[in-house]
TrEMBL record:
Domain of life, per lineage: Eukaryota
Segments traversing the membrane: none
Keyword Transferase: yes
Entry GO terms, CC: mitochondrial matrix
PROSITE patterns the record matches: CITRATE_SYNTHASE
GO BP annotations, alphabetical order: carbohydrate metabolic process; tricarboxylic acid cycle
Cross-referenced Pfam families: Citrate_synt
UniProt keyword list: Mitochondrion, Transferase, Transit peptide
Chief localization: mitochondrion
InterPro entries assigned to the protein according to its UniProt record, in alphabetical order: Citrate_synth-like_lrg_a-sub, Citrate_synth-like_sm_a-sub, Citrate_synthase, Citrate_synthase_AS, Citrate_synthase_sf
Compartments reported by the entry: Mitochondrion
Protein name: Citrate synthase
Source organism of this protein record: Wickerhamomyces pijperi (Yeast)
MF GO annotations: 2-methylcitrate synthase activity
Length: 470
């Protein structure tokens, strides 16, 4: 007993006079030293089935999740049930109104169907499914009222996450679970919730856009005869038929915008399971939280600047750089100098690098192709041109800098300037479109998690001292 008392007095008690922050500050250097030693000298050591490097390195390289809808090859990028982006573009149904138009893009609901079932839907199946989503697209009144009461300064991603999590009030899974259901039936209730959640995203996105930037004005409606992306564009005021057309777009620009939403959302829907938004959804869902709560956690992960928030950062960065280089978008040396000024002040180049990919992201290439297919429309768009020039210059700068494992453009590098071109210039909002899109993959996997009856996720943690063998 007296021995324990001595240890506590000597090693565990804080200095009597110091406050919390000072006490913490005092112990950080010693702990950092230990951390550096473990990272530098012990990374390859095995601990259980992992290496120490994987435990302290964000679980890089550790295969620890079941995910079937898509996979990511470091050099080839994403495939969806084995199909490349181009193959999906060729095979997945488009809007019934534009099914033979070569410039019309695959629908995100077609992608969702494919991700969920592994089967390509027919045009008629998708016509019916688009209509089901539109018919279920209304927001509950209490969600509208609550969103109306949020401060207009609240980041749109926070509003999205609040809106989604509130709708757990609608969850048929949560209600059925409370009454008691056999585990084998859970997936059907989860699927009902997932469809309802996805259906309500266009109206939710539109409501947040309007509340944040247009004083809550009703910008557009959900049209029962139109697809999910059209309705998202419509509820944000970007279409001509059913909305206020706040951006004064021509008919072809409005069609382009709808197709941009379709392509963007289909492509960004899934990127295997280890990214933060997908993993967070899966993790929270593993405790049998309903799909609304699970996906709101995914949205909160997406809101981080190293993940989805990079979409907003890239547009700001492109605009700032254009300004800083005096509009000389083709001046290689000025661009290089600007990049070095960022790197030398310890900032990242937004839109470059990736946790898994080691080549340019094919989703980046697909978005650039979207612009190239509309060459006349984009002929005077300096921002897109600067993004393209940057993709030829930044990789060599980042390689010379020598830190990032992937010096090539990632998914967020090109999409923002395309939206910006059509008038979606509220950069904070770009990640909300990403948030609507990312629902497709993680929520389809959540249904399968319940089909398999996967258990609650519960890895074990370990202290730095233990890793160091102390
Ligand atoms: N600019 C400057 N430095 C970069 C960099 C970039 N674009 N990308 C990576 N690095 C640095 C890292 O900060 C890290 O430095 P430290 O060793 O000092 O910590 C080093 O290079 C090694 O990082 P990495 O292993 O190559 O990359 P990570 O897997 O750790 O991180 C990512 C990946 C995306 C977070 C990182 O590349 C990054 O911060 N990029 C810029 C932000 C961005 O574009 N995010 C969007 C990602 C796509 C998405 O998920 O939505």
């Amino acid at each position: 007993m007296s021995h324990i008392k001595t240890i506590l007095t000597r090693r565990l008690y804080s200095t009597a006079q110091s406050d919390l922050k000072t006490t913490l500050k005092a112990v950080i250097p010693e702990r950092l030293q230990l951390y550096s030693h473990v990272k530098k000298d012990l990374s390859s050591h095995q601990i259980g089935t992992q290496t120490v490097g994987s435990v302290i390195g964000g679980m890089r390289g550790s295969r620890a999740l079941l995910w079937e809808s898509s996979s990511v090859d470091p050099n080839k990028g994403v495939t969806f049930h084995g199909l490349t982006i181009e193959e999906c573009q060729a095979a997945l149904p488009k809007s019934k109104h534009e099914s033979t138009d070569p410039k019309s893009e695959m629908l995100p609901e077609s992608m969702f169907w494919f991700l969920l079932t592994g089967k390509l839907p027919t045009q008629s199946q998708i016509n019916t499914f688009s209509s089901e989503l539109a018919h279920k697209g209304d927001l509950p009144e209490y969600v509208v009222k609550s969103l109306d009461n949020l401060p207009k300064t609240l980041h749109p991603m926070t509003q999205l996450s609040i809106g989604i999590s509130m709708m757990n009030n609608e969850s048929v899974f949560a209600k059925a679970y409370a009454k008691g259901i056999p585990k084998t039936d859970a997936w059907e209730y989860v699927l009902d919730d997932v469809i309802n959640l996805i259906a309500k995203l266009p109206a939710l996105v539109g409501k947040i856009y309007s509340n944040t930037y247009y004083s809550g004005k009703n910008l557009g409606t959900i049209n029962m005869d139109k697809d999910w992306s059209y309705n998202m564009a419509s509820s944000m005021g970007f279409t001509l038929d059913d909305s206020v057309n706040i951006k004064d777009l021509s008919k072809s620009q409005s069609n382009d915008f709808v197709n941009l939403v379709r392509l963007y959302c289909a492509l960004h829907g899934d990127h295997e399971g280890g990214n933060v938004s997908a993993h967070a959804t899966h993790l929270v869902g593993s405790s049998l939280s309903d799909p609304f709560l699970s996906y709101s956690a995914g949205v909160q992960g997406l809101a981080g600047p190293l993940h989805g928030l990079a979409a907003q950062e890239v547009v700001r960065f492109i605009l700032e750089m254009k300004n800083a280089i005096g509009g000389d978008i083709n001046h290689k040396v000025k661009i290089e100098e600007y990049l070095w000024s960022l790197l030398n002040s310890n900032r990242v180049i937004p839109g470059y690098g990736h946790g898994v990919l080691r080549k340019a992201d094919p989703r980046f290439t697909a978005m650039i192709r979207f612009g190239d297919n509309r060459a006349e429309e984009f002929s005077k768009d300096d921002n897109l041109q600067l993004v393209k020039n940057l993709s030829a210059i930044a990789p060599s700068v980042l390689t010379e800098h020598g830190k990032t494992k992937n010096p090539y453009p990632n998914v967020d590098s090109s999409s923002g300037v395309l939206f910006y071109h059509y008038g979606l210039q509220e950069t904070l909002f770009l990640t909300v479109i990403f948030g609507a899109s990312r629902a497709l993959g993680p929520l389809s996997q959540l249904v399968w998690d319940r089909v398999y009856g996967l258990p609650i996720e519960r890895p074990t943690s370990v202290s730095l001292k233990k890793l160091a063998g102390l």
